[in-house]
Structure formats: C-alpha cells, structure tokens
Amino acid sequence: MPAAALKPKPLPTQSTERRSVPLDSPYQPLAKRPLPAGRPRDWYVTHNRRLKAMRLAIALLDSGVQPGQARNETIRGTAELIGVHPPSDTTCHMVRALMRYSR
Fold this sequence. Notes:
Layout: H1 3-6, H2 41-62, H3 72-82, H4 89-101
Helix pairs in contact: 2-3, 2-4
C-alpha cells in the first residue's frame, strides 16, 4: 500500500467564503520611500495605480470577497474603509484582475 494512502486526511477548515472576516482597521501602511527620479510621468502614475490595486485586492481577499463579487461599489467601499482615495474604473478593473491571479 502506498504511503500516501496511510496518511489521515486533514480536518476541514472554516471557509471565509461563507462568512466574511472583519478588516483590522485602521491599518498602518509601510513607511514611504521616494520613487526614483528621471522616469516619465506615465511610469509614476502606473506604479502608484498598481500599488493601490494591490492594497485593495489584499484587503478584499482578507475580508472574504471573491473576484466575482468585487463590484466597483464594493472596491470603493473597501478603499474608504482602509483609508485610500476612491479608485478609478481602471484601478477597479486591475483589482479584480489581481484577485483572479492570486488563486
């Protein structure tokens, strides 16, 4: 008999799919460092948009929101909850994409 067949199955864990986990609020962001100089303005805009999208995606996933449930209103509500400016439609789209790829 293979060794894998002898191992007991792990106990089921509580799923956050059924029950959302409250966010630890207010959260403290990391200390900011200056961005490198000499890049085109578009690079800074894209960089900051990605950072905001990552923060929002992490907060939504931690609270149990699935990518299919992440409407613009939900994302903007979470942004208000964690204390960042409301995201644009483009950033909301990026948040949903990041949430899908994290699986």
